[in-house]
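STRUCTURE:
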């Protein structure tokens, strides 16, 4: 199973949310793409942190497309069910855990995410190296701990695809250790100095 966990790199996610929320205020559809989402902890973490920072009404306009190549063939079911073990939820602050998860009645040792969070995330299997985006008009694309698996030339093409799938002024986030390739530098400006968070330049 892919390595991931809830509340991973909240530093970058908090920056993303802080930048995104005022930008999308008043929009009836806020599209987010989590590319290489593994079995759900990352897109659900983003949904929870957005929920904490947006009113209930605005949060209902958030649509997170969570995609992964998923060699196990299990991610779709896990994400749809939204059920995770005590161990997997260990890093979630207790007040967030009690607000967004309930004990799963028929599955001892598991917690289930509340419907208001689960309903915001839709999973589909997708290979980033196909270079066909799953959609367009995204306000935010995050792709963390995935690009490092690609060759340098592939990384450039994938980042160009993200650029084309973003709405004007949309945000792109990756992990702290991933640098923007020189060949793509003219497509984005870095938003904050201490996170790999970028904004689309036309
Ligand atoms: C280390 S996990 C990162 C999960 C999550 N983004 C995080 O940072 O916690 C890397 C994920 O990238 C996915 N992946 C690898 N190659 C891919 C590709 N060509 N297209 C889409 N996903 C891919 C893997 O299946 C895996 O789930």
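SEQUENCE:
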């Amino acid at each position: 199973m892919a390595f991931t966990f809830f509340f991973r790199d909240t530093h970058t996610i908090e920056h993303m949310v802080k930048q995104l929320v005022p930008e999308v205020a008043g929009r009836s559809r806020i599209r987010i793409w989590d590319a290489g989402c593994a079995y759900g902890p990352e897109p659900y973490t983003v949904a929870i942190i957005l929920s904490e920072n947006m009113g209930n009404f605005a949060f209902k306009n958030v649509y997170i497309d969570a995609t992964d190549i998923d060699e196990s063939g299990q991610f779709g079911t896990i994400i749809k069910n939204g059920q995770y073990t005590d161990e997997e939820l260990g890093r979630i602050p207790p007040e967030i855990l009690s607000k967004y998860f309930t004990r799963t009645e028929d599955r001892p040792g598991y917690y289930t995410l509340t419907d208001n969070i689960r309903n915001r995330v839709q999973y589909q299997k997708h290979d980033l190296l196909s270079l066909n985006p799953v959609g367009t008009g995204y306000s935010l694309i995050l792709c963390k701990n995935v690009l490092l698996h690609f060759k340098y030339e592939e990384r450039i093409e994938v980042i160009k695809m993200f650029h084309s799938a973003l709405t004007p002024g949309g945000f792109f986030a990756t992990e702290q250790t991933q640098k923007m390739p020189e060949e793509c530098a003219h497509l984005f400006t870095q938003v904050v100095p201490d996170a790999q968070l970028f904004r689309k330049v036309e």
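REMARK: The chain has a mean pLDDT of 97.
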